[in-house]
């Protein structure tokens, strides 16, 4: 029974993460496939770039909610005590599966986004303080450089260090997850890194109205 419920949680988490928010918003309200414009990425940052702040904000919030909801599914497992190591480990499992669903969505031929917003959502669901620190770091770097990709990469790399400071040796799997998540973000941003090194990466237009 326990195994069946855990497997169900994994499946639900993947299906949640697979919801291609940017793709659906682009097609439903703008008549375009977001993957054919801008960076070609089906995520919040490309939605902001191509469709503007309103659409980008909607996509960002929904993608964050996907990870948060997946990490919170553990609360509905009757055999898990909140706050235990097993509880956190299952949060990590469900959350990570939702991130993989975002990157490889079954609803969009397994071509999705980079998973940053969904990753943030699952971290909020597991340990909101870690998420707050990462968000502050992201914002500071973004406003300093105007590079969304660089902000995402550096905030993600800082995440396992933050986890070590907060949890020390109490949650080794959370720290290990932080390291794995940082590596995943770096891998999914390889093209951005190449453009950053070459000086050709697009900069975000902060505090400016989007023109269509």
If you had to describe this structure to a student in words, what would you say it looks like?
Helix 4 (53-72) runs antiparallel to helix 5 and helix 4 packs across helix 6. The mean pLDDT is 88. The chain is mostly helical and 212 residues long. The chain has helices at 2-17, 21-30, 44-51, 53-72, 85-103, 116-126, 128-145, 148-167, 172-188, 190-198. It has one domain (2-198). Helices cover 70% and strands 0% of the residues.
Largest sheet: none
The number of helices is 10
Which structural class is indicated by helix and strand composition?
Answer: mainly alpha
Query: What portion of residues belong to β-strands?
Result: under 5%
Question: Which segments are poorly predicted (pLDDT under 50) over 5 or more consecutive residues?
Answer: none
Domain module tally:
1
Average pLDDT reading: 88
Helix content: 55-70%
Task: Report the end-to-end length measured between terminal Cα atoms.
Answer: 53 Å
Give the CA-based shape. globular
What is the N-to-C order of secondary-structure elements (H for helix, E for strand)?
HHHHHHHHHH
Q: Rounded to an integer, what's the Rg over CA atoms?
A: 17 Å
Number of strands: 0
Give the helices and strands, then pairings.
Elements: H1 2-17, H2 21-30, H3 44-51, H4 53-72, H5 85-103, H6 116-126, H7 128-145, H8 148-167, H9 172-188, H10 190-198
Helix pairs in contact: 1-4, 1-5, 2-4, 3-4, 4-5, 4-6, 5-6, 6-7, 7-8, 8-9
């Amino acid at each position: 029974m326990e195994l069946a419920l855990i497997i169900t949680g994994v499946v639900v988490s993947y299906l949640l993460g697979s919801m291609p928010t940017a793709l659906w918003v682009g097609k439903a309200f703008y008549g375009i496939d977001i993957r054919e414009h801008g960076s070609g990425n089906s995520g919040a940052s490309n939605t902001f770039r191509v469709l503007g702040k309103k659409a980008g904000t909607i996509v960002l919030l929904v993608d964050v909610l996907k990870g948060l909801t997946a990490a919170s599914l553990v609360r509905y497992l009757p055999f898990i005590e909140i706050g235990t190591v097993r509880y956190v480990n299952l949060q990590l499992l469900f959350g990570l599966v939702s991130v993989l669903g975002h990157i490889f969505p079954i609803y969009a031929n397994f071509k999705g986004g980079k998973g940053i917003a969904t990753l943030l959502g699952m971290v909020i669901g597991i340990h909101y303080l870690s998420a707050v620190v990462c968000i502050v770091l992201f914002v500071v770097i973004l406003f300093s450089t105007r590079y969304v990709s660089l902000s995402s990469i550096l905030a993600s790399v800082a995440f396992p260090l933050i986890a070590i400071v907060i949890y020390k040796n109490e949650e080794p799997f959370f720290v290990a997850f932080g390291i794995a998540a940082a590596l995943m973000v770096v891998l999914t941003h390889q093209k951005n890194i190449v453009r950053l090194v070459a000086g050709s990466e697009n900069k975000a237009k902060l505090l400016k109205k989007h023109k269509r």
